[in-house]
Structure formats: C-alpha cells, structure tokens
C-alpha cells in the first residue's frame, strides 16, 4: 500500500506496525512547510521513515534535520566529526574496539559487552534526542542491518494490570562507560551521566503511551528490590524485543533512516563485530524535551547536563 501525501511525496508502509519508505523527495533540496508537516506526521504515525538514494553532504544532512528542530552536538560524551560537530560517526572498526573484540584482556578483567543491544538514543540524559537521522555512508554488500521496535505497540500489548503498574514507575538510566576519545570539554574523571525517566512515556504529539526502558542504559527501577528489578526489567526488555513490533532495514549506500526517539528503540548490527566488513554511518540528532509519564512525572537529571 502506498499513501499519497501530496503530488510528490509517497509513503509506503513497511509493516502494519512500524516503518515506512518515503519516495518522491530529494532531501538535498529545501523543503516547503507542507512537506515538513507531512513528514512530521508520518514520523509520528510510522515511528521510523526510510529514504533511498539520498547522496547527502554533511551540510545537506544537517540542513534537512533542522527542518524538524534544533540540533544537538554529535554526542554528550563521545567525539564527533572533526569539522562538523553535529555529525556522529559510527564505524565498524571502532565498534569492534568498543566491545573489546580482538583485544588482549587481563586474566581477571570484568566481562565485556558482547555486542549491540536494543536501545533508545542517549536516554542517560534527562532530555534524550527527539529524533535521529542516520545516513549510510559506506555500506557492505551484505550484513549490517538495523532493526527498530514500536514501543507504543509493546506497551499496548501488556496486560491491563501490568500497564497499571508500570504507569507509575520511574527508572534510572546511566551511560554504560567508554574508553575511547571523548569530546572537547568532557571530564572523563567525573561520574557517568545519568537521569531518572518514567518507565512509560506519553508522546507529546500523539498522546500515545510507550515503554521507555532499554537494556543498554536502564539500570534499575526506583524503589524496587533487586529481585523485583531483575524480573520486571527482564519482562519489559523481552517485551520491546518481540518480533511482531519490529521492522528490519537493509541498508544501501546513501540510504537514510529518520526515527522518532520518543516511541522507538533500535538494534544496531549484530553481525559486524565478528566480521571484517567495512561499514560507516553518520548521525545527527534533534534536541529533545523532558519525558513525562502518565502520572505527570517529568524526567530529572541525576548527573550531567541537558543535551543541547
């Protein structure tokens, strides 16, 4: 099914639950207000939008993103592009180093992260990015797919008693640690940044409720015992990863993915850390607001500043 939004833009849903491909538009060109509104509505409806054959320069990617809000720096902690501080570069070789593949480890070193996991971008700050825009700069002939999950559908498919429980919970999200280069001005000797978020977030545009936890950054639910935390978080982590809520995107060079960080989590490539395939993607992020829960709880920072 293709949804005609205007004379140029065509939106073709990828699944009935999440994801749509957008055709008939050149993201290098300035967008009029009507097209920006159409894309904004489609983003809220389908959670993640896919574009093909968009050979954007860094400046063009930044200009496209600014149609939807002010941009953040590349990352709160990690170093961004040398010349374009809004661009965050993710390369397969750096990812391998982050997860410790191929490196000698001391005999009694703590366990390393084994690879990517489901996450929503930058939830260790109190105002995570509203949305992310990722371009495929160097893409292998095979491998390197990304998956997104619809956190609204994940919430709505919980039983009523469980929804009633999680509607009133808050969780601490914390940066997972990093040994690579940090951005200028960041003091790596300070404690890792962290924030408290509602476990369920109300989308500020649609009013939909979405689960707002992820296994990469969510550390614990406030006020629960360690046993309760393990069991409830495991339940919620399993829920957001259910295949029926997801869409899988096969990257091509100059493909672009644009996702709503308020209602999705995503899973980066799980097959690259053990391969020699070369992959480079480049991201910009749009400044977000403070998440609000169904009971009115508004996210607060514990350590670190707002991400602007």
Description:
Helix content is 19%, strand content 24%. With 308 residues, the chain is α+β, with helices and mostly antiparallel strands. It has one domain: Clavaminate synthase-like (Double-stranded beta-helix, 4-Layer Sandwich). It has an eight-stranded mixed sheet.
SSE topology sketch:
Blueprint (H helix, E strand, L loop, with lengths): L2 E2 L5 E4 L6 E4 L9 H14 L1 E4 L6 H8 L22 E4 H8 L31 E8 L7 E5 H6 L3 H7 L3 E5 L19 E5 L1 E3 L6 E3 L6 E4 L4 H15 L5 E4 L6 E5 L3 E4 L12 E7 L13 E4 L5
Parallel strand pairs: 3-4
Antiparallel strand pairs: 1-2, 2-3, 4-14, 5-16, 6-14, 6-16, 7-13, 7-15, 8-9, 8-12, 9-17, 10-11
CATH-level-2 architecture: 4-Layer Sandwich
Secondary structural class: alpha+beta
The helix/strand series, from N terminus to C terminus, equals EEEHEHEHEEHHEEEEEHEEEEE
Number of domains: 1
Number of helices: 6
Sequence stretches where pLDDT stays below 50 over 5 or more residues:
none
Major sheet, described briefly?
Answer: 8 strands, mixed
- Helix coverage percent: 10-25%
- Proportion of residues in β-strands: 15-25%
Shape: globular
Arithmetic mean pLDDT:
91
Widest sheet, order of strands: 1-2-3-4-14-6-16-5
Write a short abstract of this structure.
The chain is built from 6 helices and 17 strands.
List descriptors.
single chain; 308 residues; alpha+beta; eight-stranded mixed β-sheet; four-stranded antiparallel β-sheet; 17 strands; 24% strand; globular
